[in-house]
Amino acid sequence: MKRPLAYITAAWSGNECENTETAARYCRQVYEAGYSPICPILLTGRFIHDGIPQEHKDSLDMARDYLRRSRVLVVCGQRVDETVKNDIATAERLHITATTLDGILTVKGQGRGR
């Protein structure tokens, strides 16, 4: 069975270890809901140096490309920052469905209280 791609976005903290653990947990939940998760913070965080302007730009370009290839944008966490807002706006412009992690889990019968 081919799983649709789901782009994971969230308002990440400044703590790399915390972000990695949280992103992996989100990806696991999205995977269990039947999607193939794509999470740029996990994909590029190990080799891109955001402090270098060109690499930061490349990272943003790669993330947008991942989003373009995805069927759904999944907004995770309780906070919304500028990155999340930009991801939502990009998804809207590209006619990509945007939902929350709770929305994905509820559709698959795994939501809270089930």
Question: Could you characterize the architecture of this molecule?
Answer:
With 114 residues, the chain is an alpha/beta fold. The chain has one domain: Rossmann fold (3-Layer(aba) Sandwich), CATH 3.40.50. The protein has five helices and four strands, in the order βαβααβαβα. Strands 2-1-3-4 form a four-stranded parallel beta sheet, sandwiched between helices. The longest helix is centred in the first third of the chain and has 17 residues, at 16-32. It is globular and about 40 Å long. It starts with a strand and ends in a 7-residue tail after the last helix.
Helical content (DSSP H or I, runs of 4+): 40-55%
**Count of β-strands:** 4
The CATH class designation is Alpha Beta
Q: Can you summarize the main beta sheet?
A: 4 strands, parallel
Number of helical runs? 5
Q: Which stretches are poorly predicted, pLDDT < 50 over at least 5 residues? A: none
Please summarize what this structure is.
With 114 residues, this protein is of the alpha/beta class. It has a single domain (7-107), classed as Rossmann fold. Helices cover 50% and strands 14% of the residues.
